[in-house]
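To illustrate the input format used throughout this study, we show a single complete record. The first block contains the structure-token representation of the backbone; no residue identities are included at this stage. The design step must infer an amino acid for every position from geometry alone.
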């Protein structure tokens, strides 16, 4: 249950309490004892506030709007200022003083969500009632003290209970949200692990046939085509391992990993980087790096790799000496790839527009 639900439920309970007090206790007292006409006007004003709050509750509002609560509290205080002087002589805090307790319940009904305003309004109501009691000078001090203490303690006790319920509801909601967040993190971690396994399985799918062919002596390790297959598999696996590293610049990290494999094969590779790091989705990084990785896998001699990043575009290009034919590749879904051969050099470029 949320704090709004707590306020809505307690307001419904308080509404029943106010209706019961006003009709069951206040109205008979007002009729039985002799009150001046302002007392009836005060009763009518309170009834109008009651109707307004009842309409809001019936409309299903979980919170009483300030446009109703604050003007309503002002009308309730005005009713107190009308009803108290209209009491019979010496009746303050006595059996005929119908307004003292009822006004407090009205303020609690209206200002439950605003405890500071509620306490200030109650203080003003009690201070005026006590001032009129002292001005009237004919009441029983002991009875007045008991009425003030009993009435305000019950109302303030109800306020404290409501605030405790609201606090508990908020703590329960926070605990539920934290539990849901933990479940979400757990599910994301599980999904990431599954994605990693799927990715590794996809890469190993290209390696396992090669290993099976070598084990069955279908191909020879000394064959140039076999060495090419091994080189391609090594670059692909190294890029896959780098893809899952937690680094500030994943794209550059993956490019560097592929360059490292080529350099271990004796290829002299120069890497040029321009622009600041740009967030690139994993799927896009794979397609950006793939042409360069294939080119480096078959490169022999020298190669130049360049990474250009602007506000609108990310480019990865590689230039190698023409050598073995590049392996077939899948059609990219996110990037545009161009490959050309000029003067014995093979140039391959992948472009991804960020917008």
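Output of the design step:
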């Amino acid at each position: 249950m949320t704090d709004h639900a707590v306020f809505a439920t307690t307001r419904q309970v308080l509404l029943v309490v106010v209706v019961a007090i006003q009709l069951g206790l206040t109205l008979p007292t007002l009729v039985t004892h002799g009150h001046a006409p302002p007392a009836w006007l005060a009763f009518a004003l309170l009834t109008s506030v009651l109707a307004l709050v009842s309409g809001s509750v019936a409309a299903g509002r979980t919170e009483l709007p300030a446009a109703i609560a604050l003007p309503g509290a002002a009308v309730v205080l005005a009713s107190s200022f009308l009803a108290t002087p209209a009491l019979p002589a010496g009746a303050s805090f006595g059996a005929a003083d119908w307004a003292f307790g009822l006004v407090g319940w009205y303020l609690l009904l209206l200002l439950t969500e605003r405890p500071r305003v509620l306490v200030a309004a109650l203080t003003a109501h009690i201070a005026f009632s006590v001032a009129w009691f002292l001005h009237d000078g004919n009441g029983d001090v002991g009875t007045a003290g008991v009425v003030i203490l009993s009435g305000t303690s019950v109302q303030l006790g109800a306020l404290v209970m409501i605030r405790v319920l609201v606090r508990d509801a908020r703590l329960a909601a926070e605990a539920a949200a934290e539990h849901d967040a933990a479940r979400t993190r757990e599910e994301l971690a599980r999904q990431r692990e599954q994605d990693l396994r799927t990715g590794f399985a996809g890469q190993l799918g290209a390696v396992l046939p090669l290993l099976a062919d070598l084990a069955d002596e279908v191909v020879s390790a000394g064959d140039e085509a076999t060495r090419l297959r091994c080189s391609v598999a090594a670059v692909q696996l190294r890029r896959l391992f780098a893809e899952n590293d937690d680094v500030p610049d994943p794209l550059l990290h993956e490019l560097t990993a592929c360059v490292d494999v080529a350099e271990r094969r004796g290829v002299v590779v120069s890497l040029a980087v321009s622009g600041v790091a740009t967030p690139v989705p994993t799927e896009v990084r794979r397609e950006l790096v793939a042409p360069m990785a294939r080119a480096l896998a078959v490169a022999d001699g020298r190669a130049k790799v360049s990474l250009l990043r602007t506000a609108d575009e990310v480019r990865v290009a590689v230039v190698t000496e023409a050598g073995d034919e590049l392996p077939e590749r899948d059609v990219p879904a996110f990037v545009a790839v161009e490959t050309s051969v000029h003067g014995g050099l093979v140039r391959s470029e992948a472009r991804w527009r960020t917008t």
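Structural context for interpreting the output: Residues 141-215 form the longest helix (75 residues). The chain has a mean pLDDT of 82.
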